[in-house]
User: What shape does this take?
Amino acid sequence: MQDHAPLSCASVQGAVIPLYVVEPDYWRLPDVSRRHWHFIHDCLIELQAELASRGAPLVCRMGRVVEVLEDLRRKFGHIALWSHEETGNDWTFARDRQVSAWCKAHAIEWYQIPSNGVVRRLKNRDGWSALRDKRMAEPVILAPYQLSAAMDVPAGSIPSKDDWMFGESVQSVQSGGRSEGMRVLDSFLKQRANKYMATISKPGVSARHCSRLSAHIAYGTLSVREIEQATKARMAILASDADPAAKSFRKNLSAFLSRLAWRCHFVQKLEQQPSIEFRCMHSAFEGMREPHFNQDFFEAWATGHTGYPLIDAAMRSLHANGWINFRMRAMLVSFASYNLWLDWRQTAPHLARLFTDYEPGIHLSQFQMQSGVTGINTLRIYNPIKQSMDHDPEGKFIRRYVPELSTVSDQWIHEPWRLPEPPPNYAKPLVDHETAIKMARDRIAACRKVPDFIDSARQVRQKLGSRAKQPERRAKVIKDKSQLSFDM
Ligand SMILES: Cc1cc2nc3c(=O)[nH]c(=O)nc-3n(C[C@H](O)[C@H](O)[C@H](O)COP(=O)(O)OP(=O)(O)OC[C@H]3O[C@@H](n4cnc5c(N)ncnc54)[C@H](O)[C@@H]3O)c2cc1C
Assistant: This one.
């Protein structure tokens, strides 16, 4: 309700019907899961109470959005639709087009108001950053104090967390809802951010010192603008404190602000090019991995049985908690895409279902980037043994999630297959890292040899690439085909 321009604007026009539609077809998609529903459910329960206290109870319906809207139109005659602009997957985009067609057919106005820093109808990225910054500086809109409800609209009921419609049962750890989002933000800004950058890549401790706001942002319990402004306010207080700890805290918050901007940057990619859900950003990589898909490799990766301890611990911890840090996400994708040569279109839905914070714009862009199919990013191939030694040196995280290795000493925990007698109940490595990545590099280099590779990469960059780096540097890098690299 806070910083919700559509609700605020609608409420000054007259009576409102705050509507949530549970769409059964949506819940059958491969990239959604009960874990998402659990988070949404918490949000709806709190929203229901909040809206009721302001005079217009939440109305919950089940079915197709157009049919639900048509029922309301028949009942009330003239209505108008107010919503945020949303950047979702192909399915939600198609649904929005149906809603738009329905609005046209019935001369109904649909007011869509931007949310966060994603800008609609941009042709390319020139000037995007300034537009985003301007939006982030606009005042946060306060929740309407009093709402006037439309008469005789039954509230309907919110399906339970256990409803069969939401797929396989799952353990959910992260709670949703506005008050939980505020609590998480407050503890991050006041305490937890003190070790943000020092621990951001450490799988054992990052869950405490990262903000953990991603799911709240994805489902809208907090807006990016509110978070950004609250962070800047906290930074201003810290600036007047001479204590070195305050200076270090401030630096951490500054790094956090950059990531909030990255979020908008990545979602902007999907907004500008919805086809990235299905096709590689750079067409030269189409067909590169698809024919080699290995179901056994996929299952071993998806369940955490690859024989690489950190990979398996990261995947199993994700099954248990629904969240893991950026580096572990990137490493899991790198391992699937380079070591196991699995196509990102097969692996992305699996992680989407496991992430409580699934956000298609970030997810798809990151998957393509970490799989080397954008044509505009440096190849980032993670060595799972080095990552393990660097970020879990004593193997504490590994032992927590891979009990088969609980008795293995620190010396062998990163490469248990090198023990004279490896633990019998732990998988042997599916592939040899060095051999697998050599093959991956060779195959990628072959795809880059097509004659128009650089021209196409320039077009991708022009449309979707960040403008963060100096133009001279970009121009220099692009000359060398093997290193073709812009960032993001
Ligand atoms: C393969 C892959 C898939 C990912 N899928 C998702 C996803 O579905 N949803 C999602 O929210 N994030 C995704 N991320 C980005 C990132 O890992 C998470 O945003 C972050 O780990 C969430 O934890 P946090 O809120 O504590 O992050 P913090 O480090 O506290 O960052 C604050 C916020 O900034 C944004 N952010 C942080 N890192 C990134 C990044 N690298 N790119 C874009 N935005 C970022 C997020 O909104 C995050 O909540 C993905 C990363 C990878 C490598």
In short: Residues 470-487 have pLDDT under 50 and may be disordered. Residues 210-214, 217-218, 256, 259-260, 262-263, 266, 325-326, 329-330, 333, 355, 357-359, 362-363, 366-367, 370 surround flavin-adenine dinucleotide (CB under 6 Å).
